[in-house]
Amino acid sequence: MTDALATPPGTPPGPPPHSHAATAPGQHLTPDGRVELDPGAFPADSPHANEDLRPIPVAQRHWGTYNFTALWIGMAHNIPSWTLASGLVALGMDWKQAVLTIALANIVVLLPMLLTGHAGPKYGIPFPVLARASFGLRGANLPALLRAAVACGWFGIQTWIGGQGVFVLLDKLLPGSWAGASHLGGQPWPLWVCFGIFWLLQLLIIHRGMETLRRFENWAGPFVFLGALALLVWMADAAGGFGPLLDQPSQLGWGGDFWPVFFPALMGMIGFWSTLSLNIPDFTRFGKGQRAQVWGQSLGLPTTMTAFALLSVLVTSGSQAVYGEPVWEPVDLAARADNTFGLLFALITVLVATISANLAANVVSPAYDLANLAPRFISFRTGALVTGVVGVLIMPWKLIATPELYIYTWLGVVGGLLGTVAGILIADYWLVRGTSLHLAELYRREGRYWYRGGWHPAAVLAFLVGGVLAVGGSHSAPGKGPFPEDGLIPFLKPLADYGWAIGFASSLLVYVVLAGRSGRRAERG
């Protein structure tokens, strides 16, 4: 299968079969359009490579459409995804507006996913190595560590949420109650035990490598979806219908009150997966071809997220009919089951859902990103362990207690910066280089991607411009965050609610202007 067959609508065409990438020294083109590094193409003791960062041999790129679809099903089916629609309804939307917003956001974020994901099956390289082409061999650590910081934060939070879910459900299953257990550090001691076991279980799985993760995701995604459907059937049976929520009108309507809420909400929903739009090559590098990653992601991301949002709304509306109030948290809802089998099934579902999402979304990326920082000393497994430790050191239980600071402020700022990085990566790979890369040079000091001391000034400047425009207007309500009410840079405040889009578009434009001609000449040199 060729790139042309797999290219989604609106995607810039890839290079012809006999592109500069095919004839570059130290690499060769396979009949299906993928590029492989020749043996000994760069020194074996290169300080910029290890076994985890080297290109995956073509023979080992065997993930198919189902693998990528199952990966997204597993990542999308988690507790934060379940509550996305509830947050939008709380802002005044009705269920149709909430589901529409989520669907549109995931269609929008799918495009950069496919564009950055293209380099994975073609070259077999992870995100931090791809970033070397645009930022330089040393400069790539800037976007890599930014992405790693977000992932470590989310890993800790997801692990804490999962541990809380296990604690709540076990409290219902086991004889006696943990409610009266002594407290340690402000939390019941059994909760710490659940958190620790949950943390260890995830690291044991990822320690076995990406193939173990692939096999886990293959069955975890469908299992969690069946668990959510079981929750829906249970609610429908108990409620005799889905309650009044679906009949409630929007508090915003479709006029002037709706759009000021819609656009910031859309950016927030895009930001939910903006992290993966950067490091998706960490997964697509194992793909058997472009068709597998394009169809797998297209079938897995927007459809799954939309269906899951609709499912959460339906189940929650049923809970309103049964309990007299909407129960948005799936763990709290499952804890109300009145039989042991239901609680046990819910416990397993929460475990599988949180682990499948957390490992794929929040451990794989920082493992590679940290390995890129010091390839000789940090392997993929070492990076994963560091991620786990940092995820605890940030004290996620405190971050969860202050959502205004973390979820709405810090992640909002980081989302704008990640959009900026995505704009640079796509501009460099598609618009400047036409998807042609010199693989060996990505690992070689003083090569074409060394630029100035390992940094590419055009990428750094584009990042600074895009970053300032994206987050310079960040503002907080009085007493709700660290930013001034009028914004860090007051005249940029109107842009703050569109951070991801502003950062993406501005950095892409600046990078093309600064690096366009020189980059095309370099790839033809």
Automatic annotation (TrEMBL):
Entry keywords, A to Z: Membrane, Transmembrane, Transmembrane helix
Region feature (Disordered): 1-51
UniProt xrefs under InterPro entries: NCS1, Pur-cyt_permease, Uracil/uridine/allantoin_perm
Membrane topology recorded in Swiss-Prot or TrEMBL: Multi-pass membrane protein
Predominant place of localization: membrane
Transmembrane segments: 70-91, 97-115, 189-207, 219-238, 258-278, 299-323, 343-365, 377-395, 407-432, 453-475, 495-514
Record's subcellular location: Membrane
Biased amino acid composition, Pro residues: 9-18
Family: Belongs to the purine-cytosine permease (2.A.39) family.
Protein name: NCS1 family nucleobase:cation symporter-1
Species whose genome carries this gene: Streptomyces evansiae
